[in-house]
Amino acid sequence: MKALIICTNHDTYPNKSGKTGLWLSELTHFYDVMNKRKVLIDIVSPLGGKIPIDERSHDLKDEVNQKYLSDATFLNKIENSLTPSEIHPRDYRLVYYAGGHGAMWDLTDNEQLQEITRIVYENYGTVSAVCHGVCGLLNVKLSDGSYLIQEKYVTGFSNVEEALMSFVSEVPFYLEDKLKERGAHYTKSMIPFIEFIEMDERLITGQNPNSARKVASKALEELFEK
User: Fold this and answer.
1) Would you say 127 and 202 are in contact if contact means Cβ atoms under 8 Å apart?
2) pTM here?
């Protein structure tokens, strides 16, 4: 049983001096759930190599973050992520897009990753994403030319959450608005930043960083109980 985690390589904002990248817990919490069930995990990024971690997400009070930042196997995977051309999509039953603001710049339009996602989905695999990682699903098209998320129930980082984080002036678009434009049925929790996921057939999405573990648990159900 193999899962493929997709992460960003992008680490800069247009105007802010601080660095962005992957939101750490969105990777570690998902990875932890999969790892405990002995699911084999590969990590891929648009360019391969080192995955930048958003400096604001280095929360070492988070025990799962702490655990994996001292795990040699995990660190090797995020220092030496695979390139899309190294991936054989038919090897995977599950794809997961981790978020962090960086994802908005390099996961939204990556055609190689879209093709990997399409093949996994059309081979009856599960596609999942959390927070800004959901932007990686915006332009995935199926073989019939339709968008994967069209008419599907999805969630992702909300406009309200973006405003509360004060990054509105930096982001290239609002994810919530783009999902609606694509014809998805967008849903969210009434209260910002609390765990919330949406599921539609083999598509599982989480709204914010706190939703990563729940996305992973739901994906495991799909993998092992169907």
Assistant:
1) yes
2) 0.97
